[in-house]
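re the bet — no i am not wrong, look at it urself. input seq straight from the record:
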Amino acid sequence: MKQKRSRRPEPPQAVVWKPRYAVAVAQMQTGRDLARNRRVILEQIDEAARKHRARMVVFPETALSGYGPSHYERGLAEIDFRELARATQAVAAAARKRRIAVVVGTTVREDGRYYNSALTFGPDGNLKGRYDKIQLTGAANRTGDAACFEPGAAPGLSPVTVAGVKVGVAICLDMRYPELWRLLALQGARVLAHPTAAFGREGLYKIPAIRANISSRASENGCWFLHANNAGPHQFSHSCILDPDGLVVVEAQPDCEQVIAAKIDPAWAGRGRFIETRRTDVYELRKR
């Protein structure tokens, strides 16, 4: 008896997005040396714009100022805020010169309080938005971020339009809270920018969990995800660009300063389309 040939498995579904919009992620090692932070950021803006022709580049958490819990043992009052203001102005000027949108982390001092913030500059060099980190590390016992910063307010969680695309920004630990990203996506964000400071030997066990978190945030919301981490030492998350299916498009090497880039399609929301098919009768999210 003639045996039937087994059917070949069907090839995977073709990706239907078109590479039409270049974005970049800058991985750099930050610290309390503000002059060095500024120099590296300006160099990486140039690289993103000139080499990769990116229309947007995302930098790590507190890239301009250095990260409070790790770099300022005596408190954030050690920061030279005049120098930091000049560095911020230099970033705005570089964005305008290179015609590139820039998302950069920094420390903001306002009315005697400090915030872990991300500033978004448009390609015209104008400040388009500021996001203050909502979910602080160590909030339960006033350690880590919570020992240095005030938490951001929920009304600050809104996407901004830069370089023709709606961009939602949240910072580091915010990745553990899906509702923040869902609110950004429901407001029309197509690209999610994620400045991060995930480094230190004690956190290496988090590597698989963080990858799972950011992949989920991308796929469940059908958004492109730009994850920019501090370049160590001992990174427990590699800077990367994810597509709306939660798959890695490009990834940086660990513990080194590097600019990675990819051409994406902001109009493509992935094959899962989970945000479109969710059961709103099961739960409801609203911005108060």
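see?? Residues 228 and 239 are 5 Å apart (CA to CA). told u. also The mean pLDDT is 92. so pay up
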